[in-house]
Amino acid sequence: MNLLRRLCIVFCFFTPALFAAESMPQLHQPTSCVASGSWLVPGTPDSSYVSESSILAQASASRVVLLGEHHDNQAHHVWQLQMLQKLHQRQPNLVMGLEMLPHVVQPAIDRYLRGEGSIETFLKAVEWERHWSFSADYYTPLLEYAREQKIAVRALNVSRESIDAAVAQGWDAAPPGMTQPAAATRPYLRHLVMSFQRHKLPGAKLDMAVEGPAFRRFVQKQMLWDRAMAEGIRAQLSSTQPPPLVVAFIGSGHLMHGYGVPHQLQAMAIKSVMTMIPWDSHLDCGVLVAGFADVVYGAE
C-alpha cells in the first residue's frame, strides 16, 4: 500500500479521541526542570541524574547518537560542539550527520572539508539560506571543527522541493531510492496535531473540516523528513568497515519520545541508537517521562 493511501486511512476516518491531548511538548512559562550542566534520565525514580562520564561511555559504544537542538538556542549549539569534541576523543572513527542540508550539496561539503575555500565560500556553495532558515553562525563552529579534525560530514536530508513534490504528486515523485516511511504511531499523530496548532492556528482548536487537508500535508512532510534523515544515517553505517559512530545533529522535535527519526531507524532494524536532548525552557516539565529521550542535558 503506498504512502498516500496509508495516510488517508489514518486521517480520512480519524476519530476525535485520536487527537486527545496527552503529555506532549507545549509552550510554557520559562522554568528550570533540569539542573544546569546536569544529565537527567527521564522517567526514572525521582528523575535520576547520571554522570557525564557514564553518558559518554554509553554514547561512544553506540552505533548512532542523536543530538537534539532548539534551532535558535545558542546554548544548545555550544553543548553540541562540546559533545562532538568529547565523543571524537573517545571514538575517532566518527561521522557527523546534519539535518540542515540536503544530499545534493554533498560535493560542496566535501570540498570544504578538503580545505578548499573559506567558510563564507562554503555557505554560498551549499546555498545555506535557501535550505535552512536559521543562521549559519550557530553551525559554523561544528563545521570548522570537523574540517580541522578531518571528520567526515554528511548531509542527511533531501531538499524541501523534493518533499513537496512527493506530497503533491505522489510517491513516484519521491527522491530516487528513498523508501516509504514507517507509519506514524498514534501518539506521534497527537504530537503533530499540537505542533500544527502552534504553527498554523495558535490558540485555536483544530477544525479538521477546514484544516484537514493542510494537516495531512504537514504530517506527510514530517514523515518524509524523518525518513530521509534515517536513511542518511543508515547509509553511513554501511559506508565503511568497521562502521563509524554516526553523530547526527537534528531538531529535538524529530527526536522527542522516539516518534520521528528514532522510530524510522527502529523500523530499519538499526539498534544501539542513543538520543540526547538539551532542555529548553519553553518545554513543560511534564514531558520528562520515560521514553522522552535516553538522557536530557540541562542547557537552556
Description:
This protein is of the alpha/beta class. Helix content is 42%, strand content 12%. It has eleven helices and eight strands. It has helices at residues 3-11, 52-60, 74-90, 106-113, 119-125, 128-131, 140-149, 160-169, 186-200, 208-237, 261-267, and strands spanning 39-40, 49-50, 64-67, 94-102, 152-157, 245-249, 273-278, 295-297. It has an eight-stranded mixed sheet with strand order 2-1-8-7-3-6-4-5, with helices on both faces. Helix 2 crosses helix 3, helix 8 (160-169) crosses helix 10 and helix 10 (208-237) crosses helix 11 (261-267). It is globular. The chain starts with a helix and ends with a strand.
What form results from the Cα inertia axes?
globular
Order of helices and strands: HEEHEHEHHHHEHHHEHEE
The share of residues in extended strands comes to 5-15%
Mean pLDDT value: 86
User: Order of strands side by side in the largest beta sheet?
Assistant: 2-1-8-7-3-6-4-5
Fraction in helix: 40-55%
Distance between the termini: 43 Å
Largest sheet: 8 strands, mixed
Name the poorly predicted regions.
3-31
In short:
The protein is an alpha/beta fold. The protein has helices spanning 3-11, 52-60, 74-90, 106-113, 119-125, 128-131, 140-149, 160-169, 186-200, 208-237, 261-267; strands at residues 39-40, 49-50, 64-67, 94-102, 152-157, 245-249, 273-278, 295-297. 42% of the residues lie in helices and 12% in strands.
Blueprint of the fold:
Elements: H1 3-11, E1 39-40, E2 49-50, H2 52-60, E3 64-67, H3 74-90, E4 94-102, H4 106-113, H5 119-125, H6 128-131, H7 140-149, E5 152-157, H8 160-169, H9 186-200, H10 208-237, E6 245-249, H11 261-267, E7 273-278, E8 295-297
Parallel strand pairs: 3-6, 3-7, 4-5, 4-6, 7-8
Antiparallel strand pairs: 1-2, 1-8
Helix pairs in contact: 2-3, 8-10, 10-11
